[in-house]
Amino acid sequence: MSEIPADLKYAKTHEWIRLDEDGRATVGISDYAQGALGDLVFVELPEAGETLTAGDTVAVVESVKAASDVYAPLSGEVIEVNPQLADAPELINDDPYGEGWLLKMSIADESGLDDLLDPDAYEQVVADEEG
């Protein structure tokens, strides 16, 4: 069973959001997603300052199996990307909720948080996909 931390919000497309105390959000992909992708070998991240619209492709993660888009779970602006991933994309496999974060962003409209899933709802999404 995949790890699903209780303090995060989730998108149906397997991104997670951690709301930081400064009103920013940290974004990554879930343990389930990294496990389904397999060993990651490359990550393409957006540029700081880029404007995001919820649902748009924001990054690409490539594994030995396939390349997969990562979608913006909220609208806002990229403040920072994880510089460690350029040389160590496997951090996403090793620690998807910690050192493997993808980006930090400002949130344009906090009402978008209402569209995200709580851990129980996300667990059901994973269960449905696992069949």
Automatic annotation (TrEMBL):
PROSITE patterns: BIOTINYL_LIPOYL (PS50968), LIPOYL (PS00189). SUPFAM superfamilies: Single hybrid motif. Keywords: Lipoyl. Residues 24-106 form the Lipoyl-binding domain. It comes from the Bacteria. Its cofactor is (R)-lipoate. The modification N6-lipoyllysine is found at residue 65. Binds 1 lipoyl cofactor covalently. Pfam families: GCV_H. InterPro entries: 2-oxoA_DH_lipoyl-BS, Biotin_lipoyl, GCV_H, GCV_H/Fam206, GCV_H_sub, Single_hybrid_motif. PANTHER family: GLYCINE CLEAVAGE SYSTEM H PROTEIN (PTHR11715), GLYCINE CLEAVAGE SYSTEM H PROTEIN-RELATED (PTHR11715:SF3). Belongs to the GcvH family. The glycine cleavage system catalyzes the degradation of glycine. The H protein shuttles the methylamine group of glycine from the P protein to the T protein. The glycine cleavage system is composed of four proteins: P, T, L and H. This is Glycine cleavage system H protein. It comes from Spectribacter hydrogenoxidans. The lineage of its organism: Bacteria, Pseudomonadati, Pseudomonadota, Gammaproteobacteria, Salinisphaerales.
